[in-house]
Amino acid sequence: MAHKQDIKLATDAIVFGYEKNEGVSVLLIRRKYEPFMNQWAIPGGFIKAEESLEEAVMRELEEETGIKVNYLEQLYTFGDPKRDPRQRVISVAYFALVKSSMFQEIKASTDAEEAAWFNIHALPKLAFDHKQIIQSAIERIRSKMRYQPIGFELLDKKFPFADLEKLYMSVLDREIDRRNFAKKFLALGILDETEEFAKPEGKGRPSRMYQFNKKRYQQLIKDGMNFEV
Amino acid sequence: MAHKQDIKLATDAIVFGYEKNEGVSVLLIRRKYEPFMNQWAIPGGFIKAEESLEEAVMRELEEETGIKVNYLEQLYTFGDPKRDPRQRVISVAYFALVKSSMFQEIKASTDAEEAAWFNIHALPKLAFDHKQIIQSAIERIRSKMRYQPIGFELLDKKFPFADLEKLYMSVLDREIDRRNFAKKFLALGILDETEEFAKPEGKGRPSRMYQFNKKRYQQLIKDGMNFEV
DNA sequence: ACAAAAGTGTTAATCTTACACCCATGG
DNA sequence: CCATGGGTGTAAGATTAACACTTTTGT
Predict the structure, then answer these.
(1) The predicted structure's pLDDT at residue B153
(2) Spatial CB neighbours of B123, under 8 Å, sequence gap ≥ 6
(3) Please, what are the averages of pLDDT over each run of 10 residues along chain B (229 residues)?
(4) What is the pLDDT of residues A145-177, one digit of tens each?
(5) Which domains does chain B have, with CATH numbers?
(6) Is the peptide bond before A35 cis (omega within 30 degrees of 0)?
(7) How far is A123 from chain B (nearest CA, A)?
(8) What 3-state DSSP class applies to B94?
(9) Do the beta carbons of residue B74 and residue B103 sit within 8 Å?
(10) Do B5 and A9 touch (CB under 8 A)?
(11) Residue A144 in this model has a pLDDT that exceeds 80
(12) Which of A97, B22, B30, B44 sees the fewest Cβ atoms within 10 Å?
């Protein structure tokens, strides 16, 4: 207990955002200091002794990008002795989701020299082992979205059904049959129809807006339903 | 970078063992020091600056229980500021599996005052937040065993088919139809029949011994098969 | 009237579940 | 010959996968 350990503890956050014409993106910041100065990296930093891991993640995100996330989940702890060239740093990585409206807001307000969204299929060169960390996060969100309704955390409160479908196609990276998807998803009984309709951008029939009924989802789960897409 | 952080980093290992008449057990050690002196706890300890997380886990297991595991997977990082009453300790928990023969060996050789197996349904009072950690590990193994062939890591190399089935029932904690289970599992094509038969203990027809064909499993996965039980 | 996106049903194939009798051995 | 555990098939029901035309809007 008395020996000195000399390991630093950090958190990193992989923040995913979604917009139907862009697909899924990750929020990155440009490093201001060595090592890897000026390279892109995922936001994160050292944990303070009195704060919980989640508090640390949210604080760092607020400081570096001004963002507030609405879903946060621990991903994995990366601890390779050589992952930071200076000294031993172990990082507890989290992944986070932000709503589509937030995604656009950040895009408009941040200085692109400091923070920016990158499509997950067009990532820049990344600092440290961050490429690998993002890769893990993508795999996690991909598998998790199939058995937990986390997709809604990436959409606005009300959304056209087609956006949900496009989100699934974008994350799962494959075509999905529209009819089968709708049948299956609507049969779950966790989406409420609203009386609103999207105003068409350009041509096409306006689509009805839906919203996720979380209360009902939790009740159904308790009753033994299993969500799977 | 210059500030003092004063957080300790530890690893803990939840080691699962299996024996067909006992079900699934967890390896615990009795604490020799305060806090929680003499209480049962999961094995673990502080990470050294030069070793990887996995090396730390294996070293601690070797030191405290003499065990060598044949499967190790990161579980979760527990970092609540109050989880250790002395000071901030963040623990990266791993779960590990040992083969049935190893399970029996340890049971016979260790001083039960120092380390012992406890059935997951009859755990003693535990130090720190270790009850919660074990609970997470049980949930993880339960869900993971359904889509990854990790069950074999708990059985001997060659095993009667019925043992595999009992293992699944024991971990999933429910009855499984023998015929449907056999049909499904054998259809996967990842089990090799051997020419050996178990000598019956007492009465009953001797059962044929099977073994997991890992090579074949990996090939089939690459070809797009999906393991699900 | 046409281009674009939304909305919607049926059928065949596959997978899952429920269920019961015979076999090989030891005592 | 009986008790014990091993080994195996079939049929009904549920789920999934494949597939295309109609509706509503803007231009």
Answers:
(1) 98
(2) B26, B131, B134
(3) 81 97 96 94 97 98 93 98 96 97 82 88 98 98 97 97 98 97 97 94 93 97 94
(4) 999 999 999 999 999 999 999 999 999 999 999
(5) 7-146 (3.90.79.10), 148-222 (1.10.10.10)
(6) yes
(7) 26
(8) strand
(9) no
(10) yes
(11) yes
(12) B22
Look at phi and psi of residue A116 and say left if phi exceeds 0, alpha if psi is from -120 to 50, else beta. Answer: beta
A208 in contact with nucleic chain C (CB within 7 A): yes
Angle between helices B161-172 and B130-144 (to 10 degrees): 130
B3, B50, B77: residue with CB nearest A81:
B50
State both tokens at B84: 């250790």
pLDDT of residue A1: 53
Confidence check: pLDDT of A16 > 70: yes
| B50: annotated active-site residue | no
Residues in chain A within 8 Å Cβ distance of B6: 49
Indicate whether A80 pLDDT > 60: yes
CB contact under 8 A, A53 and B7: no
Q: Check CB contact under 8 Å for A49 and B8.
A: no
Q: Is the peptide bond before B35 cis (omega within 30 degrees of 0)?
A: yes
Strand C contacted by A206 CB (< 7 A): yes
Dist CA B172 CA B33 (whole Å): 36
What is the per-residue pLDDT for A106?
84
Q: Is A193 on the interface with B (CB under 8 A)?
A: no
